[in-house]
Amino acid sequence: MTGEPILRDYLPAAIRRHGSRRAVVADGKTWTYADLDRASRAVAGYLDDLGVGPGDPVALILRNSAEYVVADLAIALLGAAKVPLNMMLSTEEQSYILADSKARVCLIEQDRLDVIEAARENGVDPHVVVRGGEPGAGSWDAAVNHAPLADEPAVPPDALALIMYTGGTTGRPKGVLHTQRGIAANLLSHLIEMELVAEDVLLLTSPLPHSAGFLLQAALSKGASVFVEPGFDIEGILDRISRDRVSYLFLVPTMIYRLIDAVAARGDVDTSSVRTILYGAAPISRERLEQGLRMFGPVFMQLYAQSEAPNFLTRLRRDDHRLDGGNVRRLTSCGQSVVMAQVEVRGEDGAPCKPGEVGEVVARSPYTMIGYLGLAAETAEALSDGWLHTGDLGYLDEDGYLYLVDRKKDMIITGGLNVYSTEVERALAQVPGVREAAVTGIPHPDWGEAVVAFVVPDRPDVTAEEIQEASREVLTSYKRPKRVVLVPSLPVTAVGKIDKKELRRSWPGW
User: Fold this and answer.
1) What's residue 441's pLDDT?
2) What Cα–Cα distance (Å) separates residue 445 from each residue in 449, 480, 481, 510?
3) What does the pLDDT look like over 13-58, one tens digit per residue?
4) N or C: which end of the chain has fewer CB within 10 A?
């Protein structure tokens, strides 16, 4: 390693070091670290022949698979810029991202080639490498059987390493730009905060283009084993835990709820191997978290961050997840700032808030984005004063624990009073008959906005009127839902967050 480190100095170097250890299990096949090293160097050689070099954008439209992992490593070897696209995005969204990122090459599933046709209509024509099609030129087989990369190119630390697109729940997705310098630092932060050991068996079920992909890189850097699943199948996950002795899971809260319910229902699942359940991406119900702690023990760890500073800005440690002692309220916190980040809460005047005072969460770290692709005004707003302005509202306690209360855009102003949707959701979780709840503001002719709760009931005889009446016990008058809408399930985005935009779109009217 010479000069400032880049991702290649850590990740592919570790892959080569771990040799014959089991690395990845996907699609029924086991890959050793040596297998990953050979395949990724072949794919890197193929991309090199196509002219891909440092900072060049390479798009991935691949399902959770070993091929995704190999492509990720190949891009790191070349110092190129990964553009990972979630398979759950629409053709329109994916073709937009290809055009916006100006991807030179796209590694893509055979059944998603319609995205390439749509991108060509937008004037973008990337070279295509197809997974799942016939062998031959332009196929994955051709890439993975190519001669290995002969010479690793010199890569400056300020070269682009990642263009990560936001979920796009408000307007067009934004391309979040990260450099080699930043992504290398980000990997180190994951290694510090995840508390991984080489003996861990990590289970990933959420899309690799998002948080799971960073966790995968950290696990491979450590020499752990990773089971990469195509999606969240609860019966398959229970079998995986008991049969393959999974020790480390990454789940969003809705997945944790399904896991708790399934373990309770089956009663015969051996979960004794589970050492860590890392969670994040959305608020978690305190009642359900307490249920999980009673079931699994002190194995939970929470992360909080954004695509603009991936995965770790704060962390709620295992020993913060306690059901005894005086700090049980910390179960509603997302933890303290991590080693490599600073977190503050600021008021509208930009001054730091006092403990307990709500303001906007701001942060800085060596892995904060350098900006949004082609969006100078949005970049200046998000990175003003050298801090990342997250758009999240929250407060710090006297010990520096962060408590989130809402997204700025999700705060409801009803009758001139501020209502935080997450506060209402947490209160409704205490109401008998409520399994899950999502709260949003709906335009109202008298109140400006009115609090509306979309509720998944936990039994068939529950009525909306019953829940609304019971909310009087846990919420003050102006925070109580003006309407409760019973739904069979809550819609989620591609990364597992509750899709409040979709809920508002489904509003049946007053």
Assistant:
1) 92
2) 8, 17, 16, 10
3) 899 999 999 999 999 999 999 999 999 999 999 999 999 999 999 9
4) N
Burial class (CB in 10 A: 0-12, 13-18, 19+), 348: exposed
* Burial of 291 from C-beta contacts in 10 A (0-12 / 13-18 / 19+): middle
- Report, as an integer, the average pLDDT of 141-164: 97
Cα 442 to Cα 299, 419, 452, 502, distances in angstroms: 38, 12, 7, 12
Domains, the chain, with CATH or none: 28-178 (3.40.50.980), 232-407 (3.40.50.12780), 411-505 (3.30.300.30)
On average, the pLDDT of the chain sits at: 93
- Please compute the mean of the pLDDT values over residues 470-496 and round it to a whole number: 89
Strand arrangement of the beta sheet that strand 371-372 belongs to: 127-131, 105-109, 57-61, 81-84, 160-165, 175-179, 371-372
- The answer, as to whether pTM is greater than 0.90, is no
C-alpha torsion 169→389→367→311, nearest 10: -50
| 3-state SS track over 371-423 | EECCCHHHHHHHCHHHCEEEEEEEEECCCCCEEEEEEHHHCEEECCEEECHHH
How many whole angstroms separate alpha carbon 355 and alpha carbon 362? 15
Query: Residue 169 has what pLDDT?
Result: 43
pLDDT at 171: 64
Q: Whole-angstrom Cα distance, residue 492 to residue 504?
A: 13
The count of other CB atoms within 10 Å of the CB of residue 350 is 12
Identity at 28, one-letter amino acid code = G
